[in-house]
Every structure is written in structure tokens, then in C-alpha cells.
Amino acid sequence: MSGPKLLILSMFFIGYLISAQDADSYNRIYRKTFLEVWAKDPKDALRIADSLYQKSETPHYKAKSLMLSATLYQQQSDLQKAVSFAERSESIFAGTDEYEWQSRIYGFLATQYRLLKLYIKSKEYAQKAVAINSKIKEPAQRNVTMGMMLQEMAYYEISLKNYQSAITNIKKAQRFFDDAQTERPHFTGNNHQLLGDCYYSLANYPQAITHYKLAEKNLAAEPDGHLMALTYNGLAKAYLEEGNMGQSKIFLAKVQKMARETDFPQLKSEVYETERNFYAKNGQHNAYNASQKKLDIINDNIEAKGVAFINNSYRKMENKAISDKAVGDQQKLLIVVWIIIFIMVVAYMMIRHRNQKREFERFKKKYFSDRDESLHPTREAEKNINYFRIKTHTKVAEELAAKPYLMTSDTVQRLLKQLEEFEKSDLFLHSNISLSMLAAKFGTNTKYLSHIINTYRKKDFNNYINSLRIRYITQKLTTSGRYRQYKISALAEECGFSSQAKFSTIFKNETSFSPTAFLRFIEKETNVLPDENTGKI
């Protein structure tokens, strides 16, 4: 039947069904317009969709008619009009219990923004569709719309070249369609066509051909539809890659005929690319150049429409901003103030982090200035000695000359040597260590030992012991992953402190970091020293 005759016949049915609000008749014309009329004459299809809208008496039918127009404009890659009609439909369904159609509209808008490569916006609508889908009461409808959303997620993954993820979503979608327990060959055919595309992109051409053939079988009821055209194009591509030029030529001829009879730019683009590759493999240079030229023109048109949509959206936003200026200055000022506060907070955090990092670097230089020594755990005690040895033997003589009444040079040298031996041991980790206990161990009195520690370690006894303990535990934390798993209370007990609070206070005094902050920096600086257990960084 020719386009004009089909249009006249459709108009007759539209007038009849709308007067009676016949849902079955409406759905038949809706489906016929989308699957058949559009493939033959897109302009007639749009006129039918507009007539459906004009004749509809209820918001439900008006919104559905708008979505038909939106879908037809999408097929023509007029994404600006597709989004506009879908948003009008969305506004009609908003606040109603038409959850199935709300989910479909959100899914449709997710598709449009994906095609525009506005992936964040696309994902936002996809999430809204999934959320509203759970409110659909009828299980079959809920399963179908969820399957459609998983198909959209598959398209999204394909656009990002995540083909295995796309395959997973397609198979999930098919399970939902199967659970709907209704015969839906269109959706099943679409799934197989998508699987064919995925396996083709993964260079698994036999598997791609299998799915394209299954798609062809399921789409038999819509032989002129765009999904069948995409299926034929897929078969032409897959056979071409397998070197089966005869089969490739057969399916290419079929889809070329369909491309000539349609205004669907995306389909034309895919067909031109396939025929170009076919001509390249056959050495048909003139035909190759002609196909390349057609491909460039159609892709430029598609891109131009996408750019026009984005520019138009930007102008709408700009105009809205201008119209809101009179009443929005105070809000904008508040926004600016919040932005300034936010920037100040971020700047403060960055400066604070940088200062902490500098403190940590200074700490590393102070405690671990000789990295090579850290490769020899048996020399750890020697580093302690080097760190605390701040007076030379010459200085000892000078001190004695200044204060000869204190003790002999031999006594000083003996006590210093004993102190160095003490620093090699782990006696300072004992929680009951005291000046009198250490003096008794050294065979001297507390006055002499206190003088040696004050003069040659520049600390009183308690701070000297605390310093040894903190140095011990920081080295363990830096060189042993096992210690970094301990709780703060366990670390405090490990190095001889009576309480976690006291340990934390002294730790910060010694290192400029709290134990928690120090651990955080150590985790970031895992290459400061090798693990003492494994010898590996």
C-alpha cells in the first residue's frame, strides 16, 4: 500500500478509535506507525503521531502520542525535537500513577543523552527509570520495563566499548522479558541484534552471525523495521570479516535497499561504513570513495544536529538566567559566598595537608636520615646511638674542665658507654624503668647519671626515656606492616607507656603528629623503609 493511501486509511481509524477511546485500536495504529509507516514514509508517520495527539481526549493517550513523535524524531537523529516531545510527555505523566510510562520516558531520555555523549545526564535518567520501575504493580509490565532499561544500560556500555558488561546486561534483560511470560519477539530480536554487535566488536564472528540469525528470526513480523535493517547490516559485516564475500554481498544489498528508503541517519551511517569496507576488500576504489563521501556527509549532519541541541540547551539556560536575574541576585550572592567559603575551606585543607607533609618529611630526615642503615635491622640500635650522641670526647673534656667537681673523665666515659649500651637494649621499654633503677644498674648514683643525661642527651630522664620509646615505635611502624595493624592502646603498651592518652600526648610532642595521623602518612609512604619481616618495600 502506498504512503498516501496508508495515511488516509490511518486517519480514518484514528478518528474512529479516539471517539470511542478504543485502547486496542489505538495501540495497533501506534505500533503500525512505528514499525511500518515510519520505515516507508517518516513524514506520514509524524503526521499520524500528531493526529493521534490532537484527537486524544485523555492525558494518557496524549502523552503516549507525544512519545511516539519523540521516538520518530529520534530515528531521524533530530534529538532536539525528540527530547522536547519526551519532556512534554514526562510533564503529563508526572504526579500520576502511570509508573510504567514514566519509567519508559526516563529510559528514552537516558538514550537521547547517551547519543549526545552526555553520559552523566544519561545515567541520571537511567537511575530514575530504575527507581520508578519498582512502583509498577503489574509484574509483566514491571519485568518488561526493567528489561528495556537493561537494554539501555547495554547500549550505554557498548558506547563505552565495554562489550562484556553489555553482554551481561543484555542477558539480564532477556531474563526479565522471559519472566514477563508474554510473547515479545521484538524485544528478543533486539537483544540478539545487540549480542551480535557485541560479539562482532569482540571479533567473535561465528557467534555474532548466530545471534544475528536469531534476531532475523524473531523480527520476521517487522521485515522493514530498523532493527531488521541493523541485523542485515550486522550479517553483512560479520560475513565480510570471515571472508564470505557472497553472503556479505547478499545482506549488504538488502540493507542498502532499506537505507535508500529510510530517513534514519544512524542507519545510513552504519550501512555506508559497511559498504565502504566491502568495496575496500574487493578493490572497488571508485565505489569506496563514493561510500566514504556519503559517510562523511551523513556523520557531519548527525554531529551538527547534536551540536545544535547542546547550543539550544545552553541558550535556554542563559535566557533563564537572564530572566531570573531580577529576583535571583540575592540567591546568586549567597551562592558566591558559599563558593568563597568552600574555596577557603579547600585551600585551608590543602595548606594543612601540605604542612603536615612537610612535618612528616622533616620527621623522616630527623629519624631516618641514613636510609641505607635501615636495610640492616641489626644496626637499628647503632642508629639510636648516633642520633643521641651529641657530645664528642673532646666536649667531655671541656665539660670536665668547666665543672671538675662533678666526676672524673673515666667515670664520664664509662657512664656514656653504659648509656650507649642501654640504648642498644630494650630496657627503656619496661614500664617500671626509673632513674634510680638505671643508676643502680650502672653502678653509680642518680646525681651523676642525671647529669650525664642532661648534659649529653639534652633531656631530663623522663623525656629521655620517652624519646627512646617514641623513636623505637616509629621505627617499628615504618618498617613493619604488622605493627601498623595494632590498635593505639596496643602500641602504647608495646613501648612501655602506662596509658594510651599519655602515649598519644608524648608521641605528638616528639613527632608533631598524633599516632593516627602518623599511621595515615606511613600508609601513603610505604616506601620509606623496607618491611623488616620481608626485606621488601
Approximate helicity band: over 70%
The value of Rg in angstroms is 39 Å
The fraction of residues in strands falls at under 5%
* Strand segment count: 0
* Largest sheet properties: none
Tally of helical runs = 25
Multimeric state: single chain
Distance from N terminus to C terminus (CA atoms, Å) equals 78 Å
Judging from the principal axes of the Cα atoms, what is the shape? Answer: elongated
- Overall mean pLDDT score? 78
CATH class of the domain at 425-527: Mainly Alpha
Helix/strand structural class: mainly alpha
Let me know the CATH homologous superfamily of the domain at 425-527: Homeodomain-like
In sequence order, what are the helices and strands, one letter per element? Answer: HHHHHHHHHHHHHHHHHHHHHHHHH
> Could you please say which CATH topology of the domain at 425-527 applies here?
Arc Repressor Mutant, subunit A
Uncertain segments: 1-20, 370-405, 527-537
CATH architecture of the domain at 425-527: Orthogonal Bundle
